[in-house]
Amino acid sequence: MKLNLEPGSGIVIRSFVAGELRVNDQTFTAPVIVTTDEIITDWSPPGIAEMSIADFQPALDRDPAIILFGTGSAQRFPATTLITDIMRAGIGFEVMDTAAACRTFNVLAGEQRRVVAALLID
User: Fold this and answer.
1) For the segment 32-55, what is each residue's pLDDT rounded down to a tens digit?
2) Is 92 helix (H, G, I), strand (E, B) or coil?
3) Per-residue pLDDT tens for 8-31?
4) Going edge to edge, which strands form the sheet with 13-17?
5) Is 0.90 surpassed by the pTM of this model?
6) Using only C-alpha atoms, what is the Rg of the chain?
7) What Cα–Cα distance (Å) separates residue 116 from each residue in 50, 81, 104?
8) What percent of the chain has pLDDT over 90?
């Protein structure tokens, strides 16, 4: 029996440098939410300090097991209440710089996990 590796049809984050995110063959310069099968481009969150669970509703609507929050070129933490509210909903929430969130997304997506990345681009 011959086995052939077929390229996946899912979403892969190709690169992130300050100001630019490349997902599959598309380039983004504004915040996006990425799932294993869609890219949400109309996400316009407030500043990190003002964020609430409502700002993550597009990510929550995708029924993730975990949300990766990429905070741009530096790791910055949102209010503890935001982290607590999302975790109380039974969803993992990890905060990291966007480059780390991109790498982590690709690993978890490759493991067929229900992962969503909410990515700030600065």
Assistant:
1) 999 999 999 999 999 999 999 999
2) strand
3) 558 999 999 989 999 999 999 999
4) 13-17, 20-23, 26-28
5) yes
6) 14
7) 21, 20, 10
8) 90
CATH number (1.20.120.80, 1.10.3720.10, 3.50.50.60, 3.40.1230.10) of 16-120 reads 3.40.1230.10
Cα gap 16→14, rounded to integer Å:
7
Spell out the SS3 assignment of 1-42: CCCCCCCCCCCCEEEEECCEEEECCEEECCCEEECCCCEECC
Cα atoms found within 13 Å of the Cα of residue 49, Cβ hemisphere only: 0
Q: Tell me which residue has tokens 């990515």.
A: 119
- Where helices occur in 70-97 by DSSP H, the ranges are 80-88
Q: Quick check: 4 pLDDT over 50?
A: no
Q: What is the pLDDT of residue 8?
A: 52
The ranges assigned to domains in the chain are 16-120
